[in-house]
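Researcher: Go.
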Amino acid sequence: MRNLSDKETILRIKNGKIDDFTYIVKKYNKQIYNYIIKKIKNRDDIEDVIQTSFLQFYKAIARFDEEKPVLPYLFQIVKNEMKMFWRSKKKTVPLDERIAVDEQEEPVDQGFIERQLSKLNHEQKKAIKLVSEGFSYREIGKFLGRPINTIRTIIRRAREKLKNDPSGKSQGHSG
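Model: Structure:
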């Protein structure tokens, strides 16, 4: 087995010894696996996240500061890849298909959607659209410059407005 440090290995990879990347993969694969298995149960999904994480690290190796430890950087990549994994698994309902909270059998027409949205203030409309696009409350909070609890309140109130008048008739604009 090799006795090179991570710094030496990274420098070798940067200098064209790309086969040395397998040393990084072998060294950290088990730690990454043990971290992911606590969050994702399907073995194939775990392997996909691991593979994508190492691929992302390899793509970023030219920018990586070899003076810094590899593992924390790698864990940050893994966390980002798991977010992407969960986002891809999240079921979303496109806004133009069904905006009303109650289930409906027939497709919703564009006029109905516009009437529904007209009940909401600008911030509520934006938040509802972002939720329908699959953004998390935290991401919406950053986008709108509001704390996450405020985002929760905005979305809850918007849903209540939509639920209370499913007819699509505007009841005026409130706040």
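Model: The helical segments are 6-14, 21-36, 43-60, 70-89, 110-118, 122-132, 137-144, 148-164.
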